[in-house]
Amino acid sequence: MSGDRVQGLSSDLAAILPRLLDQVDKDRKTAIGISGAPGSGKSTLARAFVNYLNQAGSPACLLSLDDYYLGRGQREQLAVNLHPLFRQRGVPGTHELRRLLADFDQIQSGKLKELRLPVFDKSTDDRVAKQQWRSLEKVPQVIVFEGWCIGAMPQKQAELNAPANDMERIYDADGYWRQEVWKAWRQLYAALCKRLDQVWYIRVPDWNCVIDWRWQQEQELAQVNLKSRAEVEKFLGSFERIVKHMQDSYTQWADQVIEADRNHAISLPDQSE
Fold first, then answer.
1. Which one of 66, 218, 237, 259 counts the least CB within 10 Å of its CB?
2. Which pLDDT band holds residue 243 (cuts at 50, 70, 90)?
3. Stretch 159-175: mean pLDDT, rounded?
4. Distance separating the N- and C-terminal Cα atoms of the chain
5. Domain spans in the chain, listed from the N-terminal domain onward
6. Whose CA is closest to 36, among 237, 266, 263, 220?
7. Nearest Cα to 237, choosing from 99, 109, 88, 105?
């Protein structure tokens, strides 16, 4: 593919796109999941890869797990009826899984006429009005679905007993919230196992990078919700258990590992490894 088609991309991202393209089966519809910790660059990679696929003649569309977060009102109901920690978006159980799967299956079926895809605005922590939801003009050959925990195999239930951090120790002392998250995590994993042909995982150096990157990402929002790194660390407390489990278990469920360094540069392992 000509170099001008990756113009404007960082050199590291431009370098791996052709190798990733080689992994796509161009003779049938394919669904690829891209996962990684918050701030790891999965959204950037997913957008670039979708553009690259379209330019290569393989019609592609992008779905984001973030767009299926429940609205603030719905999460407030979860907080009242289930557990206060569900007031914050993030973990499995704070997404509208039924709509996500219905939309995914409708795209796969090629029936796009009535399809409207939700859009979530992180600056307002809520979904935008339905008039601003997305539609698709062309049936895709490839669905690229990005989201922080997509494809991640749940940990064993017994591993939920010990709290992962102070947030769990203080606000989930009896482990009830962890159990409910785990149940939703299992549902998400099982549903996507049936729908995704490949899962690509962006592996980050450590948990501190996740906090730093999320803080950087927060400062770029139109309306900043988290006003300090300490607030970001507190917000990410609900993600920590799953993120660290993904780091420990990715060899069991990821089809392709993409390495991210502290400067956000990404690379693929040598094929000889």
1. 259
2. very high
3. 96
4. 26
5. 3-267
6. 266
7. 88
**Tokens 């999320």 sit at which residue?**
214
Query: What six digits make up the tokens of 3?
Result: 């170099």
C-alpha closest to that of 140 among 214, 43, 32, 22: 32
Question: Cα–Cα distance between 188 and 14 in angstroms, integer?
Answer: 31
Q: Which of 171, 181, 165, 177 is nearest to 83 (CA)?
A: 177
Distances in Å between the Cα of 22 and the Cα atoms of 2, 42, 49, 98, 148 are 15, 19, 12, 32, 24
CATH of domain 3-267: 3.40.50.300
- Joined together, the tokens standing for residue 64 give 């984001």
Whether the Cβ atoms of residue 12 and residue 267 lie closer than 8 Å to each other:
yes
Is the pLDDT at 3 greater than 90, yes or no? no
Residues 6+ apart with CB under 8 A from 143: 29, 30, 31, 32, 60, 61, 63, 104, 107, 108
| pLDDT category of residue 10 using cuts at 50, 70 and 90 | confident
Question: 41-93, pLDDT tens digit by residue?
Answer: 999 999 999 999 999 999 999 999 999 999 999 999 999 999 999 999 999 99
Task: Give the pLDDT band (50/70/90) at residue 264.
Answer: confident
Q: What is the mean pLDDT of residues 16-36?
A: 93
**Cα(119)–Cα(249) distance, integer angstroms:** 31
Within 79-233, strands assigned E span 120-121, 126-127, 142-146, 198-203
Helices 207-219 and 237-249: angle between axes, nearest 10 degrees: 130
What residues contact 197, with CB distance under 8 A and at least 6 apart? 25, 30, 31, 32
Among 224, 260, 218, which Cα is nearest to 243's?
Answer: 260
The token duo for 183 is 């149940």
